[in-house]
Amino acid sequence: MLHVEIRAEPLFQLGPMTVTNSMVGAVLASILVLIAAFVFVRRATLLPTRMQSLIEFPIEWTAQIVEANGGRHWRSFAPLIVAIFIFVLLANWIGLLPGVGTIGYTEVVEGHEVLVPFVRPASADLNFTLGLALVSFFAFIGLGIRKGGVMAYLKHTFIAEPAYMTPLMTPIHIISELSRLISLSFRLFGNVFAGEVLLATMLFLTTSVVFVLPLAFFVPGIFLSLELVFGFVQALVFAFLTMAYIVLAVPEHDEHEESEEHGANHASTRSTDPALGAA
Amino acid sequence: MAFFDAFGVDVFKLGFQIFNFLLLLYLLNRFLFKPVTAMLDERRERLAKGLEDAESAARDRELASAAREETLAEARKEAQAMIARATKLADDSRDEIVANARAEAEKAVARARDEIEAEKERAMSQLRSHVADLALAAAGKLVKSEMDGGTQRRLVEEFLAEMPAEVPAGEAKS
Fold first, then answer.
1. Residue range A39-98, pLDDT digits in tens
2. A-interface mutation test, from B27, B28, B46, B49, most A Cβ less than 10 A away
3. Is B9 helix (H, G, I), strand (E, B) or coil?
4. Which of A8, A83, A130 is the closest to B25 by Cβ?
5. In Å, how far is A37's CA from the nearest CA of chain B?
6. Chain A residues close to B22, C-beta within 8 Å
7. Strand A104-109 to strand A17-20: parallel, antiparallel, or no bridges (unpaired)?
8. pLDDT confidence of A267, banded at 50, 70, 90?
């Protein structure tokens, strides 16, 4: 029977900590990223080889987007955005590797025999996506405070532009800030988890009946390629929403210059919250 | 917290994921982004420099070609001027030669005319003396011989036969 587990399954106990299969996925993704990074740094030349271009491309591409949209301080947070993009991309794509989600040990739960896979794509675990969302959340708040100062940040965040609107706007603003945490984490988790379920379902449906067995050779393939695209898009969305939040939180101008334009920027912060549009 | 429980979220797992990512971010920042940023910057710089060099080379080439074009145009103009000058010179000398020739010819004609005039004068004077002689001879003969019809006629014919040799030539040349 097809078994879907929304929680990451525990594999073994390590001291006080339960090691789950999604932790294995996260560590695997980190190791892959690091291996690629070390291979790249060791062999890097000014005239890139084909392999080097392959590794360089996502870095340069994301960095260019951050440079184009990140405003004045783009260099201070570009590494975070690029790292989120590459890490989430690999964490998503690990679920598409053969054996991930299908190789594991069997366990008896409520009388059924269920398969506990050794590796689960990290982004199909809410711990992973919520963790990243928290990092992103504290990054945009922290950068906002660091670039503008605590008082400026508090004023920017909690006092609406026409001051008499504050009682109405500030609660909305606080909710919208917090909703970013939820939308970031659940969007990624939902997409990747649903993708995993979809793949498992397709494989189960096509292999369970002998009559449609030939379909098993290409129907899951269609969904695998779709998941390849979704994994890419979700990594992109997570990384660039983080960037957008940072850009909105970091004042583009110094506090002393042009308070009028700062006000306009401030007002647009409220009206165009990308969390609402992209969710 | 039942909500988080349903998704298997607990502090340890969450903490592990955050720690894992921050560690990765630190390592990447240290070992990948700094050298890569430096390299990308250098590449961009070199590319920009290369493009600039290419542009300046193209500009130089354009300048050179313009200079060549100008030199060519100048040379062409000079050649044109030279040809014009030569043509003018040739025309001038032809005119001069023709004029000289004409003058020469006129001179020759004039000389010839003078000579003819002189010849005519000489012939006239000779003729005059001949006529006088003939008249004297004829008169002498008339006086000397008997004047019969046949003799008279023969004399006249003789006279006439002698005349054309001198007179028509003198008449034609005047």
1. 877 776 767 777 777 777 888 888 888 888 877 778 788 888 889 999 999 999 988 888
2. B28
3. coil
4. A83
5. 6
6. 135
7. unpaired
8. very low
Q: Does residue A39 belong to the interface with chain B, where contact is any CB pair within 8 Å?
A: no
Q: How do residues B42-82 score in pLDDT, each as one tens digit?
A: 888 888 999 999 999 999 999 999 999 999 999 999 999 99
pLDDT of res. A131:
92
Q: Does the pLDDT at position B165 exceed 90?
A: no
Residues 6+ apart with CB under 8 A from A278: A183, A187, A237, A241
Task: Give which of A4, A126, A132 to mutate to test B binding, by max B Cβ within 10 Å.
Answer: A126
Query: Stretch A114-125: mean pLDDT, rounded?
Result: 85
Please name the member of B22, B29, B37 whose beta carbon is closest to the beta carbon of A135. Answer: B22
- Annotated domain spans of chain B: 11-173
Query: What is the amino acid identity at position B93?
Result: S
* Total count of residues recorded for chain A: 279
d(CA A92, CA B22): 18
Contacts of B35 in chain A (CB under 8 A): 41, 44
Give A204-207's long-range contacts (Cβ < 8 A, gap of 24+): A204/A2
Where do the structural domains in chain A lie, given as residue ranges? 10-278
Q: Which residues contact A43 (CB under 8 A, 6 or more apart)?
A: A49, A51, A52
Cα torsion A226, A227, A233, A236 to 10°: value is: -150
**Is there a contact between A126 and B18 if contact means CB atoms under 8 Å apart?**
no
Give A-chain residues touching B11 at CB under 8 angstroms: none
